[in-house]
Automatic annotation (TrEMBL):
Main localisation: cytoplasm
Gene3D superfamilies xref list: 3.40.1280.10, tRNA(m1g37)methyltransferase, domain 2
Keyword Transferase: yes
Family: Belongs to the RNA methyltransferase TrmD family.
Keyword line: Cytoplasm, Methyltransferase, S-adenosyl-L-methionine, Transferase, tRNA processing
InterPro entries: Alpha/beta_knot_MTases, tRNA_m1G_MeTrfase_C_sf, tRNA_m1G_MeTrfase_TrmD, tRNA_m1G_MTases_N, tRNA_MeTrfase_TRMD/TRM10
Organism: Candidatus Thiodiazotropha endoloripes
Protein name: tRNA (guanine-N(1)-)-methyltransferase
Source organism, top-level taxon: Bacteria
């Protein structure tokens, strides 16, 4: 799967391309990441890529012409691509979005803005989607672009050593992930839950689902609001709520 990124700081992507899951996927030909610097398409001696905003105000805005030519160059090489602008004004990028992109395999052209953003006319002309990785502001879109690439690449076939690793991730089934443990069995008086050592796969499955529901209810209850709960999940949630109520009464006494 191909990713093209329009960025003023291509060196930021060295770690992503050379290390970890994405780096291995690139080396194996599963993923491709190409970088396009708008400065390469400037015509003045200072390689200017920004200018003051019309209407006044603080900050600078990325100019139309260098960005436009970088986008056109990327599209000419990548072919028809989904053009994405990483922006705090975009819709929230989540696991389901990453899954959709991984399944589509369509090339993704990511625009990493800087300063106060890019000329609005670029968005009107080229952008198919605007994405945000959270309700905060970064110095630029590079980190957001790397987050998107990493989240999508790890879902591609044959990227992870065990395909079930991605299936069991948080949010893949709309719930947070359950707790995980590894050796040694006991450390600093803390032990691995006995059910995980039982070898009873059905009991382990039920424990993991219960723990995922418990963690989701405690940390991200809004994820349960629109979820179509199974009968088993309803039973577990009722048990969790009852246990929480009993614990609260005990504390009050």
């Amino acid at each position: 799967m191909r990713f093209d990124v329009v960025t003023l700081i291509p060196d930021m992507f060295d770690a992503l391309k050379g290390e970890g899951v994405v780096g291995r996927a690139i080396n194996r030909g599963i993923a491709q990441v190409e970088l396009w610097n708008p400065r390469d398409y400037t015509t003045d001696v200072h390689r200017t890529v920004d200018d003051r905003p019309y209407g006044g105000g603080p900050g600078m805005v990325m100019k139309y012409q260098p960005m436009q030519q970088a986008i056109e160059a990327a599209l000419a090489e990548a072919g028809p691509a989904n053009v994405v602008y990483l922006s705090p004004q975009g819709r929230r990028f989540d696991q389901q979005c990453a899954k959709r992109l991984a399944e589509s395999r369509r090339p993704q052209l990511l625009l990493a803005g800087r300063y106060e953003g890019i000329d609005e006319r670029l968005i009107e002309r080229y952008v198919d989607e605007e994405w945000s990785i959270g309700d905060y502001v970064l110095s630029g879109g590079e980190l957001a672009a790397m987050v998107v690439i990493d989240a999508v690449v790890r879902l591609l076939p044959d990227v992870l050593g065990d395909a079930d690793s991605a299936i069991q991730d948080s949010f893949m089934d709309g719930l947070l992930d359950c707790p995980h443990y590894t050796r040694p069995e006991e450390i600093d008086s803390m032990s691995v839950p006995p059910v995980l050592q039982s070898g009873n796969h059905e009991a382990i499955r039920r424990w993991r689902l219960q723990q995922a529901l418990k963690r989701t209810l405690a940390r991200r209850p809004e994820l349960l609001e629109d979820r179509q709960l199974t009968a088993e999940e309803k039973t577990f949630l009722a048990e969790i709520s009852a246990a929480s109520g009993d614990a609260k009464q005990t504390q009050e006494q």
